[in-house]
Fold these 4 entries.
Entry 1:
Amino acid sequence: MHNFFSSTVLFSEISTRKHNNNTMHLHLIVVILVIFSWFSLNEAKNHLEHKKQPLNQCNIFKGHWAWDDSYPMYDSSKCPEIRHEFDCLKFGRPDEYYLKFRWQPDDCDIPRFDGVDFLTRMRGKKIMFVGDSLSLNNYQSLICLLHAAVPSSNIIQATGGVQTWIFLDYNVSITMYSALYLVDIDKEQIGRVMKLDSVNRGGNVWKEADVLVFNTWLWWYTRGPKQPWDYIQEGNIIQKDMDRMVAFERH
Ligand SMILES: *[C@@H]1O[C@H](CO)[C@@H](O)[C@H](O)[C@H]1NC(C)=O
């Protein structure tokens, strides 16, 4: 603001001097260039200072996807846990452009993912993703990221029950618990009842985890044959259907 003001003053001083003079024109051009560089310098400076906000004061969710040539951080075709339909590289997709983006908060920089640091901090912990296929994507992505960071360490897939991979050298387990709506869907005499107030089914398993990552949304507006419930229950009231947004907010 200060720079803008002083340059405007400078500009008008020059403009009031005698006209019809080539040097005069040159001066004007120089002044205009100076004003522009002041603007852009200021903008760049503000931008930098702006970004230096400490992480704990920064809204990391406000941002954009930024191109990063150093990405991707793993080769999906080398990952032990990835569904075929997500493994584009293995099945011949030629471009990698879509893999080269990272999240950039507007007001700060977040540290680059460091798999060894992550595993070290999480030693002895159970991490569990709960939700729909978006959670599955996150779950597989995390396993691939970690595997790429420590490719020769001992990794095993737990048998039985929910899908789990264990990084033995760090004693870190990562689990996927599928629950499209998070809440229970129980088979009863009238049919499949989605219970907005109940997480008995998953709740007991979730308690075993040290870190829980929940996600749901996609299925709330699903209707027709793909809808995996017949009735919806809130408290003692069982209905054939209700406003889906209201149901989502109450669940
Ligand atoms: C692994 O972590 C669990 C807690 O999740 C703990 O009970 C167990 O003793 C640890 N095992 C080893 C070998 O450190």
Entry 2:
Amino acid sequence: METEFKSKFGTKVAHVDTWDTPSDTSVWYNIMCDCTDDSHDISVEFEYDKDANMLFLNFYKQINYSKEFNYVFENDTLIDSIKNKIGVIWRRLKDATKLLFTGYIEMSGDFVLKDKQHIQDFIDAMVEGRDFCLEKNPPVLINDELVDGEAGC
Ligand SMILES: [Zn+2]
């Protein structure tokens, strides 16, 4: 009988879900940002794709448009506010055009790890997730090296 997976995490690094299906083995963690804004958290998924025989490490995070500057100052007049808004719209239009013709724009997302235990839990979650996926799919490993050494990224 298969034993249920028990993660050791539960505070700033939280185990979210785990599954092992005929097509993939996955384990999910939520890594909390120390600034406590939930929108900064990172979801990390270890996914072992059984058809491709590859272990993927996927990060999911809300990222923001990095040129979304629209500072509002106490002494701003209505004209200042309108100029700021037009500036934001102009930058969005320029980058939307760049995205259309080049396929990329610069975006960013902040994430804060400030205490040592939080960092260690992040590292330990990486090890726990890796071990879970690889223990469920042992034929892929020979002497701790992947049989098909090339990554698919
Ligand atoms: Zn944050």
Entry 3:
Amino acid sequence: MLRSRPLEALPSASLIAVMLALGVLAHAEPLMAQPLEPLVTHPIEVSDLTSSSATLHVTTDVDLACVVVFGQDEGFGYLALDLDMGGAAHRDHEVVMRGLEPDTTYVFRMQGSAPDGTFYASEVYTFATPAADADQDRGWRNVATEAAGARVVDVSSEFGPAFSAEHAIDGDPSSEWSSRGDGDDALLTIELPETVAFVGFGAWSRTMGSSAEIVRFEVETDAGEVFGPFELPSARESFSFEARGEARRFTLRVVESSGGNTGLIEFAVFVEDGG
Ligand SMILES: [Ca+2]
């Protein structure tokens, strides 16, 4: 059986060499979180709340690269990034926590790093989501998902692999398709495994706060019909719209947006449940 030689038995010069090699001396100071609250120019509170999402808008008086950890208890388990895609430190922070359960209490902590290496963390705060909207339960089923065999056959552009078009049909509210600056020219075409009798469409726009948000869109099918324009009141959740026909391919086109890296968190094609 191998035994390592205890460090205390080493001559002191050797011990220092070992510690240097391990970086122990260089990082002798433990990383302590500084309180975030003194840097914040507004109270840390949820400004926009739906049954499935919550938005934090916080301004700090030093530059910070921020994340929010959240969950149903202080084990957290989920992480939301600042909407600024570059990830650089800045002062105006907007973070959307998505994929929440309706009528549920959540806790969150905002934390971030300043360019000088200082790590800041807030206290743990609480909010509760409202009950689900009645119109979320129309008895419709989304067939425009990868799990149901849907695939992307055309896209105007992708910001990068982390923002590929497949993210709009993966059923995951924490993943997004982002175009690379397509603004009102963004489009996405998906194809289902077979022609379906559809009853509606759903769309959940991405946003970067002041840009990247789809305000109106239309859907053209391979049957040559164009539906819409449909209006998206916000990017806080998915909105669904009644539209009936038969088709296999669906192209969502942006009609109006706030410009920039427009894209979708989710696109949906609904059929009657059981249909
Ligand atoms: Ca997604």
Entry 4:
Amino acid sequence: MTQEVNVKQTITLLRRLQESDLEIEQLNHKIASIPRKKDVLNRGLQQYIQMVEQEENRLADSRKERRQLEHSLEDHNLKDARYADQLMQVKTNKEYRALLTEIEQLKAKIREIEDKILDLMEESEELEKSIRWRKKKLEKKKQEVEAECHRLEKEEEALNHQLETKEAFKSELQDKLPLELLEQYNRIKSVRHGIALAEAKDGFCQVCHVRLRPQVYYDLRANKSILLCDNCHRFLFLREDEVVDPTKLM
Ligand SMILES: [Zn+2]
């Protein structure tokens, strides 16, 4: 194997490794987003369940208040009946008027309680209606969330499978590269935001946009050795159609 072929193959391997790394990163990103998506769905459902619970609590409170008022109404009505008896037995006009005033006050109180009971009955009816409607909707929401979570789990499974395949491919690529070069690649990648390779095109590094020295560009075209960009220190590569026979450059 000539050196030229060797350099060309090594660069190709590095490019594939870079592609694999980027694909793996993307897959990991997608996989990591799935639990978050499921969380959002479940939180939405929980909020809806809480809303139903709040209405149920309000309904229970409303019913309780109504029962209390109904008891109070019974007491007031009993008192009213007693007053009616007393009215028959009063001896003086003064007592009679005083009792009448009390009866009037009592009746006003009774009307007030009755109105309140009616309001509470109306409120209960509205809440019952709303709760029935919400519970129906909740069932639908539960099914939707369940179906979506199931879909996401399937997606996660498929992504994990893809990831395994990519990791295996990456591992094969790594095995084919000299260890020293692989370490260099990983070093560059870790300090250069995950991008260890840069395309050289029209005389420029396409990542940091710095003009390449003519010699670097020439050597690159000649496939004589693995080269780095002077500025960003990434491995440089040319697309296939730019790799020309060095003799033609002379
Ligand atoms: Zn550069």
